[in-house]
Amino acid sequence: MPSKFKPYRGSRRGFYCGEEVNRKGFTMRYAEPPFRARGPVSEQLLAALRAPASDADETLAGFSENLANALGSVHDILRDDDLQVSLLVLHGLHYGSVVDADEEWEWHPVTVAARVAIEREFERQLRAVVPPTPLPQPEAEAVASALFELTKPTPGPSLARFIAKRANADHVREYLVLRSVYTLKEADAQTWTIPRLNGRAKAALVEIQTDEYGGGREERMHSSIFAKAMRELGLDDTYAAYLDSVPALIIASFNMMSMFGLNRRLRGASAGHYAAYEMTSSLPNRMIGDGIRRLGYGEAVSDYFDEHVEADAVHEQIAGRDLAGGLAEQEPDLVADIIFGANASVCIDGWGAEEALAAWIAERSALRQPITSDEFPYPADVVEMEGAK
Amino acid sequence: MSSSEIVTCVNGPLLVRGDFELVDSNGETIDCRRRTVALCRCGSSNIKPFCDGTHKLMGFRTEPIDDETPGEN
């Protein structure tokens, strides 16, 4: 059913493209990002990124010490707003399209050191909270079997079941906002792992990524299909447009993938994480597609989820057996990290989904703050069911 | 090596990659939309002939279960 409402293309809220001078007298040559700092580390970082990297001695004076203090006192880095936003911004210098900044910052010694410092503490805490499971033999089929076992579907309440049966249009919008942190850059984190692999494992990852990137058709790139769904629901598909609404734990889930992808040392974790991510995708995405159809939205919105039912049933086989399993056979010492990466995916994404579901069941928003848009296309039958809204 | 291969995935679908054409029983081409496809072999998929992962809900097995051989105590 075609939407009868014109999609809302949000203004690029917060972007300012002219030059201005901040209160310390630095020329702010780069645009303000569409999201805010969440503490002293991200505040100084975001302010510094608005000026050229050549001003770093002044703009980042005391930054390393402030960061060291923050890292020394953080008890739960997975839920630490300031540090997770900072890490997203630092990874964003490598991705692009996260903040407008001098490209020299990508490999500036201070930003690289900050990225690595946050990653080290993040990894240390991840390894402490992710429960260990028995390790399989370093044989492809044994590794695939172990990964399918630790990702096997569980009965009971889940975010996907809620969307299938109970969600209203606002829930679906919140869900897309939460997913957008990763999905507008879908598969990019794992692409960093490709040159760190060889042989069977590399061929497997390239085969999956070819499909993720649409097999040569831009409009079939998964990130493009997701952006289309956002626009259909009246959401701004600019990266990080709604970051202020996203809890730290959801940002941590994406930062974890970026960290696994950017560090060659963590290639085992990246492979295991991706396998688990693919293995926990087809069945939930079918439920989400069902929920979207129940609400009366058309294919333009459900396409992303329907595509993943079919695609990830292929990817999970390749990722389990050839990517993770193939890597385990080549480098048996990586089996522990493969299983760690898989458990980290199940654990962290599981917590994120549980927290969102708990909020919805308590009739609260799952977001940190409400999203704003002045027009929102409710499908006609939802308006009828729910009355004037 | 042949130009196409079919992988019989343990407890899962048939993975088909390479040069192939998928046709229905009338010989009409089925649009695969991707280069490598997973074909359902548990019979429970909702998107046949493709796999949708439902075999994981059915406990579908492709291998005999050694410790549950019928007739043995």
Overview of the molecule:
The complex is a heterodimer of chains A (389) and B (73). Chain A has 389 residues and is mostly helical. Chain A has helices at residues 40-48, 56-59, 63-73, 81-95, 109-129, 140-150, 159-165, 169-183, 188-191, 199-212, 222-232, 248-262, 267-279, 282-294, 299-330, 335-361, 380-386; strands at 20-21, 27-28. In chain A, helix 6 (140-150) packs across helix 15. The radius of gyration of chain A is 21 Å and the shape is globular. Residues 1-17 and 381-389 of chain A have low confidence and may be disordered. Chain B is mostly beta strands. Chain B is 5% helix and 18% strand. Chain B has one helix at 55-58, and strands at residues 4-8, 14-18, 37-39. Chain B has a three-stranded antiparallel beta sheet, with no helix packed on it. Classes of the chains: A mainly alpha (389), B mainly beta (73). Chains A and B meet through helix 6, helix 10, helix 14 and helix 15 of A and loops of B.
Major beta-sheet overview of chain A: 2 strands, antiparallel
Query: What integer is the average pLDDT of chain B?
Result: 90
Helix content of chain A: 55-70%
User: What is the radius of gyration of chain A computed over CA atoms, rounded to a whole number of angstroms?
Assistant: 21 Å
Give the overall shape of chain A, derived from the CA principal axes. globular
Shape of chain B: globular
Q: Which residues of chain B form runs of ≥5 with pLDDT under 50?
A: none
Largest sheet of chain B: 3 strands, antiparallel
Oligomer: heterodimer
Spatial arrangement of strands, main beta sheet of chain A: 1-2
Distance between the termini of chain B: 46 Å
Structural class of chain B: mainly beta
